[in-house]
Fold:
Amino acid sequence: MEQIRKLFEQSVQLSDADWDFFASKLVQRSFSKKRRLLKTGQTEHYLSFIEKGAVRFYIDREERELTFAFAFANGFVSGYDSFLTRLPSGYHIETLTETVLWQLTYEDLQAVYRQTAVGNAIGRFAGEELFLKKSRRELSLLNETAEQRYLKLFTEQPELLQKIPLKYIASYIGITPQALSRIRRRIY
Structure:
């Protein structure tokens, strides 16, 4: 839980009283590998911080699953659009490894906003991180080749290649597993 405080305090100073109130709302939950955290059609009820593990966001198509995002330890995970709008999600979120989350419900986040001096800064920090991740992903798809996206992913998240099946990585960078194999042969 202290990881979360340290992360927030990079941007905003938390009083002990504000932190204690916020921390009292967090619930730690552990999930096994391949566990769905959110299913298409469900409303997201949690904003979660990943203490340990990795998750993927994907759309289930008849012909194949399309992975469009990953989240890792020391970052936030949420079907954030569903969380904010209180409408059903159009995608799944699934653990890729054993995962430990610190979760905050929508209702508890609203209480943090109302009852703490820094509540809005906390919510803004988490929301901005999720937005920036999404924005970087969109720009990467528009401006980089599949090989550049793969190399960037490898550079920024080297543990990714050890934890995540290559078929998910291929889907994430927008190519087939066979095309990823060709890129990997060229690089290594």
Observations:
- The chain has two domains: 2-142, 144-188.
- The chain has a mean pLDDT of 90.
- The radius of gyration is 17 Å.
- Residues 154 and 161 are 7 Å apart (CA to CA).
